[in-house]
Write a structure and sequence with these properties.
Elements lengths: L15 E2 H8 L3 H9 L7 E3 L2 E4 L3 H14 L3 H9 L2 H34 L9 H8 L16
Antiparallel strand pairs: 1-3, 2-3
Length: 151
């Protein structure tokens, strides 16, 4: 069935209609239209009422999906794709640092949860080690850093 009859699919000239792009990428047509408004993807034109895209849009959408899974916001991604090559690398290096910080935060959270699983106190809030870990999540008010859990 061709895209003109409402079934989606590859259009003449190798273009993909929006339904085919959505099926191929798992990204909803509404998200594709939103990506278009942000300048992240560009339609090749229209076939009737449907947007059409060049096949390369599949790689672009895969980039968007991968970047989102890595923690990039759509605004960050838009800025990144518009950045000159030298600036692009600096921004990517900043994102690597951010990911490293997040990994360390997750390791600490994992250690807290691991402690909670083996803690012998009647409740977690009775446990000084667990409470100290919770205080680490708050801005320092006392001027003294709370003890850190190993992790």
């Amino acid at each position: 069935m061709d895209g003109q009859r409402g079934g989606g699919g590859t259009e003449e000239g190798g273009l993909l209609d929006i339904a085919e792009v959505a099926r191929s990428t798992g990204v909803a047509p509404s998200a594709l239209r939103y990506y278009e408004r942000l300048g992240l993807v560009e339609p090749a034109g229209r076939h009737g009422l449907r947007r059409t895209y060049r096949p390369e849009v599949l790689d672009r959408v895969a980039l968007i999906v991968g970047a989102r899974a890595t923690g990039f916001s759509l605004a960050e991604l838009s800025d990144l794709l518009a950045a000159p090559p030298g600036e692009l690398r600096a921004r990517l290096a900043g994102k690597v640092d951010e990911i490293d910080r997040r990994i360390e935060e997750m390791r600490t959270a994992r250690a807290r949860i691991g402690h909670a699983l083996t803690c012998r106190h009647p409740t977690l809030l009775d446990c000084p080690t667990f409470r100290a870990g919770l205080r680490e999540l708050l801005p320092e008010v006392s001027g003294e850093p709370a003890p850190r859990l190993p992790g």
